[in-house]
Automatic annotation (TrEMBL):
<dbReference type="Pfam" id="PF00213">
    <property type="entry name" value="OSCP"/>
</dbReference>
<keyword id="KW-0375">Hydrogen ion transport</keyword>
<dbReference type="InterPro" id="IPR020781">
    <property type="entry name" value="ATPase_OSCP/d_CS"/>
</dbReference>
<protein>
    <recommendedName>
        <fullName>ATP synthase subunit delta</fullName>
    </recommendedName>
</protein>
<keyword id="KW-0066">ATP synthesis</keyword>
<keyword id="KW-0139">CF(1)</keyword>
<keyword id="KW-0472">Membrane</keyword>
<comment type="function">
    <text>F(1)F(0) ATP synthase produces ATP from ADP in the presence of a proton or sodium gradient. F-type ATPases consist of two structural domains, F(1) containing the extramembraneous catalytic core and F(0) containing the membrane proton channel, linked together by a central stalk and a peripheral stalk. During catalysis, ATP synthesis in the catalytic domain of F(1) is coupled via a rotary mechanism of the central stalk subunits to proton translocation.</text>
</comment>
<comment type="similarity">
    <text>Belongs to the ATPase delta chain family.</text>
</comment>
<dbReference type="GO" id="GO:0045259">
    <property type="term" value="C:proton-transporting ATP synthase complex"/>
</dbReference>
<dbReference type="GO" id="GO:0005886">
    <property type="term" value="C:plasma membrane"/>
</dbReference>
<comment type="function">
    <text>This protein is part of the stalk that links CF(0) to CF(1). It either transmits conformational changes from CF(0) to CF(1) or is implicated in proton conduction.</text>
</comment>
<dbReference type="InterPro" id="IPR026015">
    <property type="entry name" value="ATP_synth_OSCP/delta_N_sf"/>
</dbReference>
<dbReference type="GO" id="GO:0046933">
    <property type="term" value="F:proton-transporting ATP synthase activity, rotational mechanism"/>
</dbReference>
<keyword id="KW-0997">Cell inner membrane</keyword>
<keyword id="KW-0406">Ion transport</keyword>
<dbReference type="InterPro" id="IPR000711">
    <property type="entry name" value="ATPase_OSCP/dsu"/>
</dbReference>
């Protein structure tokens, strides 16, 4: 994974610097999100791996699937990635771009995973507490995992706060077994 990150980092940095200079960070984040989703698609991946396709055909197909989300600069970015056989790195490029964006805008990505759909008021209270704890703005994404039984699992970068019932039961089982 470290090798792929090393390969993807210059592309992410170039995209970030270009987007920043053009004042289009949000647009580029949206384009890269779409590009990464297309690159992850198994059908698209199989199509792009066909040896009879040249780079121009790959770029055209990729751009056609991305639709109106892709502008000319995004299409050029895809062309460079296709030229050097790097289209499969798009999900990693998106992640690295997002890290640069978070650093630039001084926010922390936080994933809230709960056992059931959370109320907006509960999310708001958690966001306020996380802002105080992490010392800055937070960008929240939520998901539901019924296997947690109850409570919330919070992931913010390398920090994981496990307030789930499943996590508590696992810790209790570890204590009883030791």
């Amino acid at each position: 994974m470290a090798e792929l990150t090393t390969i993807a980092r210059p592309y992410a940095k170039a995209a970030f610097l270009y987007a920043k200079e053009a004042g289009a960070l949000d647009k580029w984040e949206q384009m890269l999100t779409t590009m990464a989703a297309v690159a992850r698609d198994a059908t698209m991946h199989a199509f792009l791996d066909r040896p009879q396709l040249d780079d121009a055909a790959k770029v055209d197909a990729f751009a056609q699937v991305c639709g109106d989300v892709l502008d000319e600069s995004g299409r050029n970015f895809i062309a460079q990635l296709a030229r050097y056989k790097r289209l499969s790195l798009l999900p990693l490029i998106l992640a690295l771009f997002h890290e640069l964006l978070a650093e630039q805008q001084a926010f922390t990505d936080v994933e809230l995973i709960s056992a059931y759909e959370m109320e907006d008021a509960d999310i708001s209270r958690l966001v306020d507490a996380l802002k105080r704890r992490l010392g800055g703005e937070v960008k929240i994404s939520t998901s539901v995992d019924p296997a947690l039984i109850g409570g919330v699992l919070v992931r913010a970068g390398d920090t994981v706060i496990d307030g789930s019932v499943r996590g508590r039961l696992n810790r209790l089982a570890e204590q009883l077994n030791s």
